[in-house]
Amino acid sequence: MFTMKHILVALADTAAKSAPAVARAAEIAARTQARVTLFHSLYSPYLAGEQFYSPVELQRDIEAAVHARKLALEKLARPLADAGIDVHVRCRWDYPIHESIVREAMREKVDLVIVGSHRHGVAARLVLSNTDWQLIRVCPCPVLLVKTTRRWERPRVLVSVDPLHSHAKPAALDARLLAAGAGVAQVFSGKLHAAHFYSLGTPMSTGFMIEPLPLPVEIAEQHAADVGRAFEALVAGYDLGAKRRHLRTGLPVDELPELAEELDAHVVVMGAVSRSGLKRLFIGHTAERVLDRLKSDVLIVKPEGFRTPVPRRAENRPVVLPPL
User: Looking at residue 74, which CATH number applies to its domain?
Assistant: First the structure.
């Protein structure tokens, strides 16, 4: 599952001195012959709502702003074009930004969205106010968060799975995660690793307090055996040696970043399940709490058949300049 035909690179800052997301897209495109589109979305509620603007002046100023960013994208695209990569640029006046990116991804039927990831504050992690967190939640195609400038040369690809689906992931998602990780490893001549972390405790609640209490020895042993069998069955088709199968006790929020650092992983592959209602703000135990602690790139994959809540048409009328 790493057959790339079209990659969308969503850029927050077109004037940045370095663009690791663009470099990673070029690296992938060179191996897969994928088309690359550099994309930037901008919007100003003040400008759009300025009552003193005439419609003609407003349109002129918006198009000028879009054109300026498009020129910056063209500059970023030039080295890719010189390297023989099929690269295009597109800039839109659209809002909110994450929905604009998703709309572009759906419009162009891309296989992968790449964004540069930055460390977030505690509040951002809790309410997912940042564009990349929102993309994890609503983007229908895989999202690659680029957190390092290190090249994927014979990369170590770590896939986090949940064979007993203790975190309510669809059963087929683990197969998609392993297929994606194996695809990356194959394309870049790397090594695939699979990991699962489980707890030998059961949550017991009293009032508002929830504490994990140890299981009786015989139940703990049976649980460990069940987990081991499920994990081995899941990874059986990938010819992973003992050193590339990682079954550990503990919480993913602690163990996954530690294992990724121990392996010096280039990329970690994780699944995300978007919730409904109030829970739509939370991605799930692993993705929500682990992502910001990982130092490697992270590839987020959704379940098959996931349908984004983002409308295909923006409420505001987007302004777009045609691609190169």
Answer: 3.40.50.12370
